[in-house]
């Protein structure tokens, strides 16, 4: 199964937008994400339809957050992205008549379903403001560490 990184890339972009404090163009966001601006525009268009971002054309335009970070959960973003698959939805069925495979798949089906429900519930508890606060702490620690290394030199 191919790994879908849209959620993490989108969170990355939204945190850059929050930190930037003014509209960011698709080109700027694409540089942050090391991707193509077309990918950014396609993703942001879905977020705009969900009311999470806005866009303005022209000089000084770009993408901006439409809601306060504390009001946006990871679940909101996951839903706006079309609910990309995070876990296998079901185990592979290669020999449907095999009783061993049936027993294994029955157990895995239940486990995958429970894991998906737990993950979705947890996504509802995590806010963009939580991620932004963690980022700010990391930046402060990084700056303090860099200053300490500079002072020691």
Automatic annotation (TrEMBL):
Stored PROSITE patterns: HTH_RRF2_2
Keywords: DNA-binding
Keyword Signal tagged: no
Species whose genome carries this gene: Aminobacter aganoensis
Domain of life: Bacteria
Pfam families: Rrf2
Entry's Gene Ontology molecular function annotations: DNA binding; DNA-binding transcription factor activity
Protein name: DNA-binding IscR family transcriptional regulator
One GO cellular component term: cytosol
Gene3D superfamilies: Winged helix-like DNA-binding domain superfamily/Winged helix DNA-binding domain
Keyword Lyase: no
């Amino acid at each position: 199964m191919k790994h879908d990184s849209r959620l993490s890339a989108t969170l990355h972009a939204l945190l850059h937008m929050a930190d930037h404090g003014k509209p960011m163009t698709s080109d700027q966001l694409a540089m942050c994400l090391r991707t193509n601006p077309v990918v950014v525009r396609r993703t942001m268009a879905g977020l705009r339809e969900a009311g999470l971002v806005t866009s303005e054309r022209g000089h000084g335009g770009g993408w901006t957050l439409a809601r306060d970070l504390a009001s946006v959960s990871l679940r909101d973003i996951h839903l706006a992205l079309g609910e990309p698959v995070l876990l296998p939805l079901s185990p592979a069925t290669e020999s449907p008549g095999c009783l061993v495979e049936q027993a294994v798949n029955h157990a895995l089906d239940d486990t995958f379903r429970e894991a998906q429900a737990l993950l979705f519930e947890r996504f509802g508890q995590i806010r963009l403001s939580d991620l932004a606060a963690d980022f700010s702490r990391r930046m402060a620690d990084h700056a303090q560490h860099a200053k300490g290394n500079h002072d020691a030199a």
